[in-house]
Design a protein that fits this description.
four-stranded antiparallel β-sheet; 47% helix; 8 helices; disordered C terminus; alpha+beta; 216 residues; elongated
Length: 216
């Protein structure tokens, strides 16, 4: 057509422009991007009431105390001194709020039982932990699969509380033991403690009946 117009001496018309089409495409892409990025605003969260805030603070405080209690301090109460701590001492210990208070309580606990408080050594404390170690070594049993520690058995309980017996008879074939204490404060003289072996789990359980049948 240009050649024909040139031959006819006709002026060439304006060329069609692509700018409007290109601008429209860019605008559509931008709008689509904005729509994709736009997210509806989340609904407003209800504000906690003062009572709820107080309850949450209380729960956090109780959780903190619980975590502090689940430490060696809790083990000290439920394991180390389980057989020698008095009810009044136990109640007082459970009211403590901080580890610093527990440390002070434990220090005073042993000091009250120290036969020679003027010396560095606390003979009562040392003997007590020696008994726990002996009980764990000698009286633990895994026959039942439960793995109960020696300190938590009946023989461990008596040994830790009253110490080694003055006389001891062991009858493994008959399945029983008898411990004789010449004197126990509060119980009297010549106290005999009998332990009978259970055929189910292999533990020696204390019996207060001296005529209890011996398991064979």
């Amino acid at each position: 057509m240009r050649r024909v117009r040139r031959l006819l001496h006709q002026p060439e018309g304006p060329r069609p422009s692509v700018a409007p089409v290109f601008s429209t495409a860019i605008l559509l892409v931008a709008v689509a991007a904005l729509l994709g990025a736009w997210q509806p605003a989340p609904p407003p969260q209800p504000q906690a009431t003062p009572k709820e805030l107080t309850e949450k603070a209380k729960q956090k405080r109780e959780e903190k105390l619980r975590r502090e209690a689940e430490t060696p301090y809790q083990k000290w109460l439920t394991e180390d001194v389980a057989y020698i701590i008095t009810d009044a001492e136990r109640a007082a210990y459970q009211r403590l709020q901080t580890n610093e208070e527990r440390e002070k309580f434990i220090e005073q606990f042993w000091l009250r039982r120290d036969p020679t408080p003027s010396t560095i050594e606390n003979e009562f404390k040392e003997e007590h932990y020696r008994r726990i170690g002996y009980a764990n070594d000698q009286f633990a049993s895994d026959i039942s699969g439960s793995g109960v520690a020696g300190w938590n058995t009946d023989r461990g309980h008596i040994y830790i509380t009253y110490g080694p017996p003055d006389e001891k008879e062991t009858h493994p074939r008959e399945g029983f033991e008898e411990w004789l204490y010449h004197y126990i404060d509060g119980l009297g003289k010549n106290v005999i403690v009998r332990f009978v072996k259970s055929p189910v789990d292999g533990y020696y359980r204390m019996t207060i009946d001296p005529k209890a049948p011996v398991l064979r």
